[in-house]
Amino acid sequence: MLSFWQDYPEIQNKLRVTQELMVDRLKISNHDIKTALEAMALQGGKMVRPALFYLFAGLTAKASDEKLWQQLIKIAASLEILHSATLIHDDIIDDSPLRRGIPSIEAQFGKDVAVYTGDFTYTVYFELLIETMAGTPFLEKNAKSMKKILQGELTQMQSAFETTISIRKYMKAISGKTAELLSLSCLEGAYFSGADQKTQHLAKRIGRAIGLAFQIYDDLLNFTVGLDEENKPILTDVRLGIFTLPLLIARENNPEKILPYLQAPEKLTREACLELSDLVAENGGMTGALLIANGLTQKALADIEKLPDGSNKVLLTQATQALLERKY
Amino acid sequence: MLSFWQDYPEIQNKLRVTQELMVDRLKISNHDIKTALEAMALQGGKMVRPALFYLFAGLTAKASDEKLWQQLIKIAASLEILHSATLIHDDIIDDSPLRRGIPSIEAQFGKDVAVYTGDFTYTVYFELLIETMAGTPFLEKNAKSMKKILQGELTQMQSAFETTISIRKYMKAISGKTAELLSLSCLEGAYFSGADQKTQHLAKRIGRAIGLAFQIYDDLLNFTVGLDEENKPILTDVRLGIFTLPLLIARENNPEKILPYLQAPEKLTREACLELSDLVAENGGMTGALLIANGLTQKALADIEKLPDGSNKVLLTQATQALLERKY
């Protein structure tokens, strides 16, 4: 999936080096688990978090400053390793058979090993932080971010099947679950490359807007994917009791129509799901959520415009558009 | 269970203050989880790890140095919070309905919430480390210890049902699973109170010996507890495929008699368990394991003897005897 970055060879190269470092750091005495962690690192998706980190770091860091870049690579790896740890634990919760096209740690080794393997992965993350961030405020910032991420996950989980869940609560959950780590990635890229305060502030805000937009586009997709294919599971979020923005907007607009579907969503038939999907669209859920996501994307792009000029600013604009557009 | 320390009022008081700090730090936005974490902290067992930490800190730290003690209390809390995090995740693995006499987080909220609540607890642990250990080698040491603990758990899990598991592998697993954190607790007590190198070195070694002995006594107990009570589950470790020292010694001494019981241990009837328990005793498993555990206890006590004289040295000797004797 690093092919996503093929038009950005510098970023792609850095991501490859990051993967190598991840494989090296995730070594564990148990051979099978080691192999699984290695595969997970190498299949590593688009590596959005380290990529955003590098895009921001590149605004300020000199390409020739090798010592600095060695540190930056470790920090980029810490972001992706934290993300991997949360994914390993997420897969326990979702009982996911696959992750990035290969069997999840849970599917390969069972829940029990997955719990400890996720914990082990968190430890590797902390080791990298300790090596790179001692004496900076970022040890503390990382701990705070991790707390927010977990509170976001817990909020979402505890409000599953809550038919009256507010849009505010949804935004809070995705703010922790997705936006927090993207925001931290951008901020760390700016900070550790030595960017000024203004750039750091913008980086944090841009990451947050991209993160929120990213998640809302993802949630929109869940209302359309698979609708035309008889055998594909559809509206998987709703059926898990996860009520996201398109549904919540439609429910605000037309509670009488929408609410009956939410009483026992785990039992919805395919037909009922198709009806609900239509109802969400008819009652402004899709366009409403799309408007909000597009607004966030525009906000991110406008903030990117305020960054110091240079080739990386152009890259960042293009990458943001590519990242968010591919989603919907 | 703090009543265990009733003859040591100073330690007991410090443990109470530690519990208060734990409750304060484990605050989480979700009300139910907050309550559960609070109950877990307040029911906190004997708090062996902070207690050992305080016993070692008391060798060197002046009682009047309030500022130092405030730091020490945070460090003691970090040890118990790390232990709690591992317990929350252990309960997922064991499907334990109870923990310290109250329903486990898993039993109360399900596996999913327990995964994230354990992760959240790890984060609070890291926050406390960052606040108290910046600029010392102990951030790194903690990360390394956590890795060893998890590798110990994974080793034990991955070698479950392995009939040929070596005594060496067993020792390695309990060394990670139990001894590592007890050793760290003693070492941190010495280091952060400003003890000299020699005391630090002894502390680490004493903690390790106590930890190994503690675990072996526990494992011995699993071969005797409940044997006389018709309705109590017995030999629970063996039936989970966890083959511990008494069994391994008996297997070395008489493989023909022992091995047949280990082929499908999850299916052993109560009668077969009683037979196996007898066989383990007849073939030197109980006395052999007891000799090793007693040897470790003696080693710890001999090392305590080498510590600087003072009232805390007497306390430490008594507490070690009490901790280990009550086990068997």
TrEMBL record, chains A, B:
Query: What's the family?
Result: Belongs to the FPP/GGPP synthase family.
Q: Does the keyword Transcription regulation apply?
A: no
UniProt name for this protein? Polyprenyl synthetase family protein
Keyword match Magnesium: yes
A single MF term (Gene Ontology) = metal ion binding
| Origin: domain of life | Bacteria
Matching InterPro entries, A to Z?
A: Isoprenoid_synthase_dom_sf, Polyprenyl_synt, Polyprenyl_synt_CS
Cofactor(s) it depends on: Mg(2+)
A Pfam match: polyprenyl_synt
Q: Name one GO biological process term.
A: isoprenoid biosynthetic process
Keywords of the record, alphabetical order, are: Magnesium, Metal-binding, Transferase
